[in-house]
Design a protein that fits this description.
313 residues; alpha+beta; Hsp33 domain; 2 domains; 15 strands
């Protein structure tokens, strides 16, 4: 962990090092119990788009989920061997959305229908993606925290909008009892590529003054969309400073963010070895058995001889 004030010099150092990288900053007011997480994930979401061949609508929906998963790592105290899985099961045409993030800043995910139709709506004088229609406004949001302490902790809440950011804020208030504001955005270019992607999480803790709560609520309400700020050249530390302006913001942590899938041949083989002998024989009748990773699309093929050495006695 680092701890330093968000001075102009600090922001310059961060900009120089993270110029073309995705990363998250964690900032707090000097004297009030609150915390702000701001993440830039443009590269990670673009990688997800390319890996899965996503339509623009699917890019925005999965992108928001990936950013939400990254923000949810606030729940695992940034331990590198812990992770959070977010699953959205709505009644929209995209089907199930899965996103996972760990304490190292690595994210990965997939959607059931990667070529979902792209719906739009008019809002605030401009055309926006209608994510609620893509995801569905009815269904559930499931958060699974793997803390390496035994059985994973699972919490399920109903979707309140299908916009994902509002659903995460509801999750925090209901399951974690932490008043939270969440803002997430993904900006897609005319060619379908990701131009900007990022988000923020603002949480107030016990003992905070009513005056500061009101101030933070006003800041979040008046804050322009995250992608608009990023298009203007604002970076995570700049956005954190905007939210905490006047409260002596201090940077207490940061980490790089990337799309990363740790699957390998051993993991793929293990999944096949969970099948019964008859199921495995049926798979192998027409040639090598295939395992396709849903998170990254890698294909692993195994012959009967490949599997013999790995079958448990």
């Amino acid at each position: 962990m680092i701890q330093k004030e968000l001075t102009d010099e600090t922001r310059k150092d961060l900009k120089d090092y993270f110029q073309n990288r995705d990363y998250m900053v964690i900032a707090v007011p000097k004297r009030e119990p609150a915390r702000v997480y701001v993440v830039k994930a443009t590269g990670a979401v673009e990688t997800a788009r390319r890996i899965h061949g996503l339509s623009p609508g699917a890019t925005v929906a999965l992108g928001r989920a990936l950013i939400g998963a990254a923000l949810l790592t606030s729940l695992v105290k940034h331990a590198t061997d812990q992770k959070v899985l977010l699953k959205i099961e709505g009644n929209g045409p995209i089907g199930t959305i899965v996103a996972e993030a760990d304490g190292k800043g690595r994210v990965r995910g997939f959607v059931e229908n990667p070529q979902v139709e792209t719906f739009t709506k008019e809002a605030e004088g401009r055309t926006k993606f209608d994510v609620s229609r893509i995801v569905g406004s009815e269904g559930t949001l499931t958060v699974v925290k793997e803390l390496r302490l035994g059985t994973p902790y699972t919490s399920v809440v109903p979707l309140v909008s299908g916009e994902i950011a509002q659903d995460l804020a509801y999750y925090f208030s209901q399951s974690e009892q932490i008043p939270s504001a969440v803002g997430i955005g993904v900006l897609v270019g005319e060619d379908g590529s990701v131009k900007q992607a990022g988000g923020f999480l603002v949480q107030t803790l016990g003992g905070i003054s009513d005056k500061v709560v009101d101030l933070l609520e006003h800041r979040v309400t008046e804050l322009p969309p995250v992608t608009q700020l990023m298009e203007e050249g604002k970076r995570p530390e700049d956005i954190a400073t905007m939210i905490l302006d006047g409260l002596e913001p201090q940077l207490i942590g940061l980490k790089e963010v990337e799309y990363y899938c740790p699957c390998d041949e051993d993991v793929a083989k293990s999944s096949l070895l969970l099948l019964t002998e008859s199921e495995l024989n049926e798979l192998l009748e027409e040639g090598p058995a295939e395992v396709v990773c849903k998170f990254c699309g890698r294909v692993y093929r195994f012959t009967r001889e490949d599997l013999k050495s790995g079958k448990p006695q």
